[in-house]
Every structure is written in structure tokens, then in C-alpha cells.
Amino acid sequence: MQRILTETISVKEENGHLKKSDDFKNEKFEDNAEKASNEYKWDIKWVNVILLSYIHGAALYSCFHPVEYWSTVAIGWSYSIVTGMGTTVAAHRYFTHRSFKANKYLKFFLIMCQTMSAQEPVLHWARDHRVHHKFTDTDADPYNSRRGFFFSHVGWLMCKKHPEVIRQGKKVDMSDLENDPWLVTQKKYYIPLAFVLNFVVPVYLGILCGESFTTVWNRNLFRYIIILNFVWCVNSVAHIWGMKPYDKNISPTDSRLVGFIALGEGWHNYHHVFPWDYRTGESPNYRYNLSSAFIDFCAWMGWATELKTVPTDIIRKRVLRTGDGSHPYSKEVEEINNNNNNEHPDKLRDTEHFWGFGDKEMNPEDMKYVKVL
């Protein structure tokens, strides 16, 4: 069970040993989680099972029909990039982790992109993801990878949430988003807006290009489900296979493949260690992080400001302390050992349980991890 990061001074004595108050919080959470696990029974959401099965089937069916008008392929490709950014840049980096600030025009564009992605309103998406970061791979994690690849990839959408997910979801701080009138409005009208923007508009454009309704409808579902699966790979593939350059003690991994197909979301080990970094990874190569390229462009235009990242020295120290040895900085460990250097590589506490910049558990000492551009 990963420890809850709440440092306090108060201690209690038990069996002659001193215990921190955060240890007691851990025990309390573990007791609640164990009780919830015993009570939990799989409850399949058959409507979701049928819908997801239909979409996958229709997408597969579309693969056996040749493309008649390449203009529809161009439309589908463009829609894929925009809706993908709606998840990676809007829902994830901007709203959930507050890794940068946006002016009202960029904010409106990001909300529209996220709505086009048809992946729940921002308020729901961000709540689940913040809980995921604070309680990774526990019963409170909506896409707990310890339940297997299928569950963390798509199975979590096919059954009702574990009671602990609901309990912790009510406790996680969402005040910054719940008090945003733009997001409240989006949530209110999300279903009709998402249906029109993600299904009606692209299908209509395809028909204008000369495609039949059946062909363009199935092809649009192919585009939609491919993007969903690419996003889901962050929760599944990037929690099972890959390297752990920054922290070998957690499940998230760095995956170049996921980084490419998910527009830069594959550097997941880094992201869980430093969740407020707008880049979600160290690599300066935009080929594997198209989302960062977009944010940097917006910053250059003056639309995005206060981009949060991590000082290089902090990254280096964390790699030396908890990395798996796959990072270039890890070579310095041997040099430190050979020189009998007793300097602690990183005296700051771990921050992988924060949901991002603004988490109430962050204290002034934790701000040493944050660099604002």
C-alpha cells in the first residue's frame, strides 16, 4: 500500500515505538479499503459492454471496405489529432494537473476539443484521474492495473466502480474545476454536444465528400475507437511494460510506443513522479510528444502561460535515488560510490501521490520541485 503523503509533526506511541500520524492515516485507509474489497462484487454495466462491442465490431467491419474518397481520410485524420489533444492537452495536462494557464480563447478551444473526444465531461474525467494519481494501483484507483491488463485497459468501463473509488472521489479536491462556470455548463450539455461534435459533424462532412452514410458512419467509429484505445494504453500498457528510470517502486513505466500513439502520454513513470510537468516527460523530441509541441506553440503565441516543469537538478537527484538504472544519470551512481560520496542524492520527499500543481498536500518545501517558465 503506497503511503499517503501528509507530513505532520504529531506522533503517537504504540508498543514502545513512535509512529507518525500519516502512518495512522495509512492504516485507516487500508482498513477501509480491505473492508470495501470484501464487500465488492463485480457488477457488469451491460449497456457499456454492448456499446463498446458494437463500436469495435463496426470499426472492424469498416476495414473491409476500400476508401473511395481520400478527403474523408483527411477529415478523419484531422479529427483524430484534435480529439486526441482534447484528452492529452485539455482534460489531462490543463484541467486535471493544472500544468499551465490558458487565456480564455485557448481555454474555450480546449473545452471544445475535449467535448469532441466524447470521453465524459471534464469534471468526471479529471476527478477519476486525480484519484488515480493519489491512490495508484489500490482499490481506490478507477483503472487499477493490479486487476490485469484487460481491466486497466477497458474493463473498468464495463463494470460499476469499486466503492473505494467512489469514497475517495468524493474527498479529492475538485473545487478549482467545480467552481468553473464553463465546465459546469459543459457538464450540463455534454451528451448532446459530444454526440453532435463527435458523430454528426464528421459523418455529415464525409457524406458531403461523396461517401455513403453506412460507410462514413462505420469509418468514423473506427477513428473514434482507435483514439480511445490509444488513450487506454496509458492506463494499461504504460503500467505493465516499459522502463522505470525515475522510480522503480511504482507501476507506471516509460513507453516510447505509447508516447508516440498517445501524443506524448507514454512517459508515464516520469509523469507519476512529477505530475505537474506540462511535458509529462523529459524528451525534447516532439515526434514522441506532439501535445508538448502544441502547448509550446501556444506559449510562443502568448495563449499559454506559466508552464510548470521540473528543475534538472531535481530530476537528476530523483533518478539517482529511486531509478531502475535505465536513465543516463544513473551512471553517476557508480561514480558516487567509487568516490565514497555520502551526500544524499535527494532530501526532498516523494511527490508521486499528488494529482498535480495545486494539490493541497503540497507544502513550500515541495515547491522546490516546480519550475515555472
TrEMBL record:
Location of the Fatty acid desaturase domain: 73-275
CDD domains xrefs: Delta9-FADS-like
Principal location: membrane
Membrane-protein topology: Multi-pass membrane protein
Entry keywords, A to Z: Fatty acid biosynthesis, Fatty acid metabolism, Iron, Lipid biosynthesis, Lipid metabolism, Membrane, Oxidoreductase, Transmembrane, Transmembrane helix
InterPro entries: Acyl-CoA_DS, FA_desaturase_dom
GO cellular component: endoplasmic reticulum membrane
Cofactor(s), names only, from the UniProt record: Fe(2+)
MF annotations from Gene Ontology: iron ion binding; stearoyl-CoA 9-desaturase activity
GO biological process: unsaturated fatty acid biosynthetic process
Transmembrane segments: 189-209, 221-242
Cell compartment(s), UniProt: Membrane
Lineage: superkingdom: Eukaryota
Domain comment (free text): The histidine box domains are involved in binding the catalytic metal ions.
Annotated family: Belongs to the fatty acid desaturase type 1 family.
Alphabetized PANTHER family for the sequence: ACYL-COA DESATURASE, DESATURASE 1, ISOFORM A-RELATED
Protein name: Fatty acid desaturase domain-containing protein
Organism in which the protein naturally occurs: Chironomus riparius
Lineage of producing organism: Eukaryota, Metazoa, Ecdysozoa, Arthropoda, Hexapoda
